Amino acid sequence: MAAKWIERVTGSLEEKKKYRQYKARMGQLPEPYGEAVQAFDRYCMYRGSSTKGDVLVRMIEDLADLFEQSAATGTPIRDVVGEDPVEFAETFLANYSEGQW
After folding, report:
1. Per-residue H/E/C for 35-83
2. Which residues contact residue 32 at a Cβ distance below 8 angstroms, ignoring those fewer than 6 apart?
3. Which residue numbers in the chain have pLDDT < 70?
4. Pairwise CA distance, residues 5 & 46, whole Å
5. CA–CA distance from 83 to each of 73, 76, 77, 93 (Å)?
6. What is the reported pTM?
7. 26: exposed, middle or buried (C-beta count within 10 Å: 0-12, 13-18, 19+)?
8. 3-state class (DSSP) for residue 22
9. What pLDDT was estimated at residue 83?
10. How far apart are CA 84 and CA 62, in angstroms?
């Protein structure tokens, strides 16, 4: 019962757990992949990507998968984000437009 009350005030505890897992996964990425993800995070925080926790969790899990797979295969960052990282970020975020403000 207390967990439901806490979640009503703070938001989903499961979503917070998944966000912490995402941060841990991204902390294990080799450079320059880790640096690219940090830049993407800063851009999202500045832009205010989503107000819905479930959409945000889905987005960051997809982002983590993308960069982990790229690091595992040795795909260069420019091949992942292209020549314009802002355009990549905007296109990526557009796929998760539900709840944007």
Report:
1. HHHHHHHHHHHHHCCCCCHHHHHHHHHHHHHHHHHHHHHCCCHHHHHCC
2. 77
3. 1-3, 5-11, 48-51, 99-101
4. 30
5. 20, 12, 10, 17
6. 0.79
7. buried
8. helix
9. 94
10. 20
Residue type, 22: Y
Residue count (the chain): 101
Tokens of 26: 């991204």
Looking at beta carbons, which pairs linking 26-31 to residues 24 or more positions away fall under 8 Å? 26/64, 26/67, 29/67, 29/68, 29/71, 30/71
∠ Cα 50 90 23 (to 5°): 55
Give how far the C-alpha of residue 24 lies from the chain's centroid of Cα atoms, to the nearest Å. 12
Q: In sequence order, which residues have a C-beta less than 8 Å from that of residue 64 and are 6 or more positions away? A: 22, 25, 26, 37
| Residue appearing with tokens 């800063």 | 42
The amino acid occupying position 79 is D
